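Section 5.1 Outputs to date
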Amino acid sequence: MADEIESKFGEKPELIKGRDGVFEVELDGGLIYSKKSTGRFPEPGEVETALAASLPA
């Protein structure tokens, strides 16, 4: 997923090791995706779509 984000947006994501099954994606301090909230890992392309929707046009 990090490679897909880097290739699509030209930015290298910062990966921070979590604990207790935490998986969250943030952009500028805002939550983009949370496994804790959804109860599942994201589907392929789901995080990239959410990131694109969160970026200014």
